[in-house]
Amino acid sequence: MSSLNGWHKGERAIQQKLGFHGAVSQSWTQIEGEMPEQHQKFYSTCLPFIPVTTLDSMGRPWSSILAGPDGEIGWASSETYDQLSMRAEVWDGDPLKANADYHADTTDGSPRKMLIAGIGVEFSTRRRNKFAGSVKAIEKQGGLLVICTTVNEAIGNCPKYITIRNLVPFPYTKPRVTHQEINLPQTGCLPSHLIAFILASDTVFLGSSYSASEEDAPRFPSHLGMNHRGGRPGFVRVRDDGRTLVLPDYSGNRMMSSLGNIEATALASLTFPSFTNGSLLYVTGIAHNLVGTPAQAIMPSQNALTTIEITGYIFIEDALPVRQHEGTEPQRSMYAPPVKLLKEEQASSTYFSTEDTIHATLSRIELHSSDLATFTFESPHKLDIIPGQAAILDFTSFLGALPYRHMAPENPNLVNDDRIRTWTISRCSSWNSVEDGVNTSFSLTMRLKPGGAVTGALFSIANKLSEVRPGFLEDSRPLGLAVTLVGIAGDFIIEPPDPHEGAKIAVTCDEEQTSVQGYAPRKLLWVAGGIGITPFLAMLSGIPFSCSTEYEITLLLSTREPEVMLSLLSNAIKVAPPEVKLTVHVFSHTEQFESSLPASVSLHRHSGRITSSFLSDFKAECVYVCGPEAFEREAIQGVVGKVRREGFAY
User: Fold this and answer.
1) Residue 86: phi, psi to the nearest 5?
2) Torsions phi, psi of 569, nearest 5?
3) Is the separation of the CB atoms in 495 and 524 below 8 Å?
4) Contact 646, 492 (CB under 8 A)
């Protein structure tokens, strides 16, 4: 039976903003007033540590980590449904120590009521349960703290966004506080290496507080919250001020208890753990939820997010008494969407106002193989696109919006599918045209993704037209298939030459017997894995004929379809200026293939895959790498010099 009397005003407000207040109006009844027996057993027998939220002397939440001695389980116990006791190891610097002292130290000797909330996450199975209540007693026993809590809220959570890890006890920790700013000055910010620590994290524990007004307290008493947030590494971003964190909100159970607390009491805490070296970053700060246009102004294409302006932080090294088992790798949740960057992180990107919608109409389709095609779109606007950039398209009008789904085990990507997709532009009408027209056509060369909603629909249309109306492949405009152009993004482009740098060479003219200083050709190394060739097609096509700079470009291409890829490359090199000298090395298990490249291109064939030793033989001004994550990771191991990467996901 629930101990609640409904959703408090903050929860109702955020549910209303997100448009599902009606759907979850009675979901508060799922929050029980005591722990089910399985929760009691879970906390007692499955967990080496439990993150908890408590308040400091200023009423700010902090997310602490309570752990069993030496990282072992069995340190928590529950004798009754509303009692949870923890014999915890709490290291110096963890906020719980100071917060407990504050609640115990009063002028009249009577302790203040100490609220607490916690979450148990079994990382090997993705099980998680939450509790909230108050601290009944705290006492020291040797080097441990015995914390007895009274639980009045308990609920199980779904496993989405939890990264599976094989954690093992690590009893040899030597915790040391290396940074501590309990009250960060207004002009203060995080050190750069702590920002890097956040950007490498895929897990964070989110603490929140609901401070009830005197009027609301009888029905909705004050309480704390603790939750888990997970994603791909870097899903939490840091703003340019170095003190404001941005936490995107992914699709969940729609109860919005954490964001509801923040909506009512604008405070939050985050703790980032490292499961490889045991470091912990604790932050607390002022929090705000943003929905719709305000959210997208900070993180384009993200409908809801929370900003946390840090007012205090602590960094402790070698504290967490469990570690990722050596020789094992984390298993990312398939529900985790790709990382979204902040608008300020994309200086060369352009996002169009939702008030001035720009449409693009499908105008041409080229089928290269059963799962590779180029789709060309036309926009009635003049678009400023740099070769190597990508188009961000919203296919909602084309496919329709997806209804809410809590889980989708058959295709986890559907849960957070906003119908927005990003593809590198492989060809653009403005790159080689001398006309100053107002229209722009751009082409997207893409691979059919198994189970992909957008590519599946586009290839289905292409294949059907090929069968019954092949003329519509050449001119698809009569179909009237229009999408919304959200923006042009990306900085994976050829950097312009610096006239003050580069290798100078002496050029002698025999007739005049004079010597002048020129510049050596720009030497670039491009490394492409499969469809990762698309930005290089754009770069080739986009080098202007008016450019006096010579280019010596070496392309290393790993592909299962050499003939198809070389055909695409041939079309791009045909429109490149004569100052471009291209050498292509094709790596493929397909030993026999025809080449459509012009004679000016030097082609070399290799069997198998690109190796790091092969890459190390090349010297270039800059190395550009594009392909699947595993391909890029292996490729850059052999790279010498400056590297630029452009990966792709989902």
Assistant:
1) -135, 125
2) -65, -35
3) no
4) yes
DSSP assignment of 491-518: --SPPPPPTT-S-EEEEEETTTTEEEEE
Q: Which of 401, 400, 385 is nearest to 352 (CA)?
A: 385
Spatial contact of 473 and 414, defined as CB atoms under 8 Å apart: no
User: Measured between alpha carbons, how far is 235 from 200 in angstroms, rounded to an integer?
Assistant: 9
Q: Give me the DSSP letters along 83-99.
A: EEEEEEE--TT-HHHHH
Each residue's pLDDT tens digit, 568-610:
999 999 989 888 999 999 999 998 899 999 999 999 999 998 9
- Provide DSSP, 16-46: HHHT-TTTTTTGGGGSBSS--HHHHHHHHHS
Query: Which residues of the chain fall short of a pLDDT of 70?
Result: 1, 109, 433-437, 498-519, 546-547, 647-650
Q: Is the pTM of this model over 0.85?
A: yes
> What is the per-residue pLDDT across 121-166, written as a single tens digit (0 to 9) for each?
999 999 999 999 999 999 999 889 999 999 999 999 889 999 999 9
Q: Mention every residue, 6+ apart, whose C-beta is less than 8 A from residue 558.
A: 528, 529, 530, 587, 588, 609, 610, 627, 631
Rounded to 5 degrees, what are φ and ψ at 282?
Answer: -105, 130
Q: Where are the beta strands (DSSP E) in 436-543?
A: 440-447, 482-489, 504-509, 514-519, 522-529
Separation between Cα atoms, residue 315 and residue 279, nearest integer Å = 7
For helices 562-574 and 534-542, the axis angle rounded to 10 degrees is: 20
- Give the pLDDT confidence score for residue 544 in this predicted structure: 79
Residues with Cβ within 8 Å of residue 631, at least 6 apart in sequence: 529, 530, 532, 558
d(CA 282, CA 310): 10
Q: Are 183 and 85 in contact (CB under 8 A)?
A: no
Scan for tokens 């072992």, then name that residue.
72
Looking at residue 508, its pLDDT comes to 45
* φ, ψ at 164 (rounded to 5°): -70, 130
Which tens digit of pLDDT belongs to each residue from 200-245? 999 999 999 999 999 999 999 999 999 999 999 999 999 999 999 9
How many other C-beta atoms can be found within 10 angstroms of the C-beta atom of residue 553?
25
